Amino acid sequence: MDMNAGRDSQAVxxxxxxxxxxxxxxxxxVDAAGRPSVPRQxxxxxxxxxxxxxxxxxxxxxxxxxPLILTAxxxxxxALDDLSEEHERLDTALDRLADIGLTGARDHDGEDLxxxxxxxxxxxxxxxxxxxxxHLAHEEPVLFPALRAHITPAQWAEFAQRVIATTPPVAGHxxxxxxxxxGAPAEVESIFVNMPPPVKSLLPALRDQxxxxxxxxxxxxx
Length: 222
Description:
- Keywords: Coiled coil.
- With 222 residues, the protein is an all-alpha fold.
- The chain contains 9 helices and no strands.
C-alpha cells in the first residue's frame, strides 16, 4: 500500500508529514535538552512550539476531524474514542513540559540553564516524545485508511484551511523547517501552495530562520 504513497490522498500526505514533524521535533527537544551548549531561549522556543502545536493538533482531531469521519463511518467510534483518551494522557505530559521554567534572564551563577532545570526539561521531553510515538503508532493504522476511504478532497481542503486559520502563531518557522526535513519537495510544496500570498512571500526568510535555529538546537556551528 505504501508503494503508492506518491499518489496518496492529500489528506494522508499532510497528516503523515505532520506526524513526522512531531516525531522529529519531540526527539530533537530530548537531544537538545541534554546538550549544554544549547541556550535557554532556543530550548524554550522549541518547547513552546511543541506544546501549542501538539495540543492544537489533537484538539482539531477530536473536535473537527473525528466527527467528519464518524458521519461516514459510525463504526469507527470506538477506535476514535480510544485515540481521544490517548490525547488526554498526552495533555498530562504536555502540562508537565509546559511547567518547566525556561524564561527569564541567566541565573545568578551565570549559567544559561542550570543542570537541575536541564535534567527536568529532558525528563519531561522524554515523556512527551514517548507518548507521541506510542500514540502515533496506534493512530496511523486507524486514521490513514479512514482518510483514504471517507474524507473527500473538498472536505480535506476545508479542514486544512480551518487548521491553518486556528494554528497558534508560536515559532511557526520551525514547522516550515521541519516539514522540509521530513517531506519530499513536491509533498511540502503541495502543503504550502494554498498559503496566503503574504505568507508565501516570506517562505525564504522563514526557511533561513528555521535552518539557523535548528542548527543551534543540534549544536552545529554558530
